[in-house]
Amino acid sequence: MPAGRVATVPPVPEQGATGKVAEVYEDIRRTKGIDAVPNFWRVLATNPDHLELVWGRLKAVMHPEAAGRSSKLAPVTREIIALAVSATNGCAYCVNSHTAALRKLGMDAELLGEVMAVVALFNSTNALADGYQIEPDVLPPAE
Amino acid sequence: MPAGRVATVPPVPEQGATGKVAEVYEDIRRTKGIDAVPNFWRVLATNPDHLELVWGRLKAVMHPEAAGRSSKLAPVTREIIALAVSATNGCAYCVNSHTAALRKLGMDAELLGEVMAVVALFNSTNALADGYQIEPDVLPPAE
Amino acid sequence: MPAGRVATVPPVPEQGATGKVAEVYEDIRRTKGIDAVPNFWRVLATNPDHLELVWGRLKAVMHPEAAGRSSKLAPVTREIIALAVSATNGCAYCVNSHTAALRKLGMDAELLGEVMAVVALFNSTNALADGYQIEPDVLPPAE
Amino acid sequence: MPAGRVATVPPVPEQGATGKVAEVYEDIRRTKGIDAVPNFWRVLATNPDHLELVWGRLKAVMHPEAAGRSSKLAPVTREIIALAVSATNGCAYCVNSHTAALRKLGMDAELLGEVMAVVALFNSTNALADGYQIEPDVLPPAE
Amino acid sequence: MPAGRVATVPPVPEQGATGKVAEVYEDIRRTKGIDAVPNFWRVLATNPDHLELVWGRLKAVMHPEAAGRSSKLAPVTREIIALAVSATNGCAYCVNSHTAALRKLGMDAELLGEVMAVVALFNSTNALADGYQIEPDVLPPAE
Amino acid sequence: MPAGRVATVPPVPEQGATGKVAEVYEDIRRTKGIDAVPNFWRVLATNPDHLELVWGRLKAVMHPEAAGRSSKLAPVTREIIALAVSATNGCAYCVNSHTAALRKLGMDAELLGEVMAVVALFNSTNALADGYQIEPDVLPPAE
């Protein structure tokens, strides 16, 4: 009976969570404006210190205003980068999660197709540049 | 005497190029507004059919207006995706090339740092989601 | 209830397809000699321009005679390369698809085992060469 | 009906196995102290020579004492490396298998979290070092 | 004149560094007990916020005692994981850096060979498990 | 002074090699019909057991007749797989080595271009299949 992917450690439920885990869960729900904590964070919660560390970094990078930082990248651009990385790495959970985030930000299937066209193109050219070991072009020095 | 990366096949020089290669070279220079054909294309030119095929696709995706297409992605977003893919794959030639393209489009080192922060973050979370085999969240069905 | 992989965008059905999508679908069925368009193409069809672009390239590379090109690589060699790349990238859809193609071309499980032995060996040596940062051997110059 | 992952070739059952396959199966059960041969080996058995080759190498590296070798790496360290590689490659079967091995060796979810924190951190810094093409620090020469 | 890898942005020198960058540089030197800040950090310093974020995470994970945390993983195990990830990703800078760290911790070439043997083995088996799409063994449920 | 890639451990010279290392070196030269042992093997020789293990496997897979085995894969097909894997992984040493092997087997730049076209195409489609999480087509059951 082949089954789908099941996390190798059981996620920590929201109900009954205490201490550091409960605090991070609450911050995730508030910062993201969602009702349920995604599986990703509930699995990380099996090591509360690591949960806190990863959430702190993701909050700083992806929700800079909530973290008291400023950013010149648009939220949709950040999610596009996330999807490009996840598609390149072939990460199932991440592709699902970031595609959902892009849909929430209004991206339709046609625009998603444009994003994927660029992702696919450069996975292709990367293999060519590496497969021929092409040497970098001489560039003007960075200022 | 350890040396840098040298292409496994010698690039086809611009001077003396004929036929299909000369045509593609000319189209590359005109479409990109550059004086010299980058090493990438000059190495691909060792198989003229493949040069034509890859250039045709890159032109359609990255220079849609020149290819008679329309696109809703901004050029800078396309180059950001290219860099995100290339950094994830660790492709030296490609990282150099797309960073140079982003500098030409006005991106400074601080904004590049924001892009790289997102790229790095999701290479990290990809490893976590895969390393724990976290199962996708149940999402509302795509319309 | 963990489920298998489900595409993040719904595939475009063959029935009712019109315009560019219908044309590409028909060309895929005719060129490949199959009755049903695989999921891969039906998902790409959510962006008809991209569908056309990817199919055009795959047709040129994998069905050169149908695309009016010539090739010195045997079809079975091309599918072996496809499987080697897909196994290295860990792409589930692609491994299934290219293994099925090789079975159709007559490859049995024992010969598949030989292919996989080579794929596995070089994923191993790649890690060693990169993990020790071994410098390339000095080679006679390419002519 | 989307299903989970199913091997592209049917595994060779333990019952009825003969010759080289039966011998390797028996050695796997004895060396690992398990009752059933894992799917990995039963799929490799479709090419008995390859089964023997891969098992011989894994036995030498992971069960050195059984192979008449000595090793200075602790078994738990070897399994941690296996998990780090598998998480980085996103290999589902391997992540499941090596996490199970670590649990058998007594690793709990909190310590697993520490391992994954290191794995995730360096997938992140790898992307940064490659994404900026940072040149190696000058090191004292290896003795 | 092919040259080695050169960072796409110029590193920020230690001399003359101010504010957040100077503080992080000082913390890196003190925490790691080194005289010069490695190139990695000097390149990240082109975006001081990102420098601070990455250093904060690396300090927490790799120097837990300095960060006021506790850890059950030995420092040498953490560096072994770092090398395993870096070899798998083929990250040149990182392989150099973590091999140097392991040498400082007393690892000789023979033991390094044992580590690399495990890294290489599992890059090989990962390709096999993914290349055959082997389904996970049924495991006893995680407690 | 940025330099090229230098192995993290010094290769073991052929002159003065003794015991197991000398034996494997001699077998490499004889089996491959070459005068000098490539850097790859001279670096592995820092752990003689590992040298023996990796050479034994490579000999069995890539030089089956010398190892007393038979194979239905042509030598050029095996080297093509090696190059496809190495290009996909972006392994510099390996790309150089396997391209040189293919040149020795008579492959010219045009045919190499065909190989690279297939490699590049499927790195592209892999990213699409993973990036959309396309579910496998229902296939007829393997016999």
List the helices and strands and how they pair.
The structure is a homohexamer of 143-residue chains.
Chain A: H1 19-32, H2 39-44, H3 48-62, H4 75-89, H5 92-104, H6 109-131
Explain the overall architecture:
Six copies of one chain form a homohexamer. Chain A has six helices and no strands. Chain A has 143 residues and is mostly helical. Chain A folds into two domains: 62 residues, Up-down Bundle (AhpD-like); 59 residues, Up-down Bundle (AhpD-like). In chain A, helix 1 packs parallel to helix 3, helix 4 runs antiparallel to helix 5 and helix 4 crosses helix 6. Chain A is elongated and about 55 Å long. The model of chain A has no long low-confidence stretch (mean pLDDT 93). Chains A and B meet through helix 2, helix 3, helix 4, helix 5 and helix 6 of A and helix 2, helix 3, helix 4, helix 5 and helix 6 of B.
